[in-house]
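TICKET: design request
STATUS: open
ATTACHED STRUCTURE:
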């Protein structure tokens, strides 16, 4: 498939190159036959960011009203790759016989081998909406429907201070500083994603939010630790211009990362690696 990978120089999802023999060994270990299209892609580049960011969905999800996010594809490897699927399945209570090809805990996209050993459909799992449904009858169909979503200004009015890549941010969704502080004080895994709707207009706003995230991290368990790591990664990505230029901000980020690292969780470690790569 031409122009599939973005070929970024520092891509946390791109693993070392593999051979057809590596794929054959992995298939024996997994007990399934991987889709031919997937094998062709990972021989070209073993995982990474892709030149698409969305797949259409008839159901609303925690990402958007009409699509799911797909901006990278996991390659073949034990860390940051599909061979880590079994560990994530156990950790997140997902069904057995899945090969996870995209996801972070909130949501997963998987090759679904529950009823077959080859030519699997592609399935979506959304822990926030407690939804799971089929996206495509085959990986080939899945590839054919990937597209790049760009928000329509007529459909979505952005809040000043909130990064435009956050989907479907309506003015009524913005939260106040008091609401953000309450969410972080209560430290509920189900609500922590809402802190992304706190408008960050300047460095003071950013450092205040990071300070509160740090305080919440000190009492975090694995569940809300994952949510805090996801939120931290998003905040840093959306406001990288502020983060890179201020030593206090960088120190806060590193302090939070060090605290969350102590939870010894593979999902958190993956997110922290991405945060480190962005600094």
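STATUS: resolved
RESOLUTION: sequence designed for all positions
ATTACHED SEQUENCE:
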């Amino acid at each position: 498939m031409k122009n599939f990978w973005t070929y970024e120089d520092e891509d946390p999802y791109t693993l070392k190159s593999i051979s057809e023999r590596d794929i054959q060994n992995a298939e024996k270990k997994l007990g399934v036959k991987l889709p031919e299209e997937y094998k062709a892609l990972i021989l070209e580049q073993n995982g990474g960011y892709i030149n698409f960011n969305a797949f259409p969905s008839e159901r609303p999800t925690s990402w958007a009203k009409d699509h799911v996010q797909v901006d990278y594809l996991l390659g073949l490897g034990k860390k940051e790759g599909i061979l880590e699927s079994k560990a994530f399945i156990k950790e997140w209570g997902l069904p057995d016989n899945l090969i996870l090809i995209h996801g972070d805990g909130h949501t997963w996209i998987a090759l679904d081998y529950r009823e077959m050993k080859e030519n699997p459909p592609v399935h979506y799992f959304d822990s926030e909406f407690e939804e799971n449904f089929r996206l495509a009858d085959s990986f080939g169909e899945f590839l054919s429907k990937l597209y790049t979503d760009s928000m329509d200004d007529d459909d979505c009015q952005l809040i000043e201070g909130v990064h435009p890549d956050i989907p479907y941010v309506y003015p009524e969704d913005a939260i106040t500083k008091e609401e953000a502080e309450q969410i972080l004080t209560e430290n509920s895994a189900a609500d922590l994603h809402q802190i992304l709707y706190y408008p960050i207009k300047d460095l003071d706003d950013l450092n205040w939010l990071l300070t509160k995230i740090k305080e919440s991290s000190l009492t975090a368990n694995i569940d809300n630790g994952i949510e805090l790591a996801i939120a931290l990664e998003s905040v840093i990505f959306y406001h990288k211009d502020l983060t890179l230029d201020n030593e206090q901000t960088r120190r806060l980020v590193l302090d939070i990362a060090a605290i969350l690292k102590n939870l010894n969780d593979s999902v958190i470690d993956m997110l922290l690696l991405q945060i480190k790569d962005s600094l």
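CLOSING REMARK: The CA atoms of residues 152 and 168 lie 10 Å apart. Strands lie at 48-49, 54-56, 67-69, 72-73, 98-103, 107-112, 122-126, 131-136.
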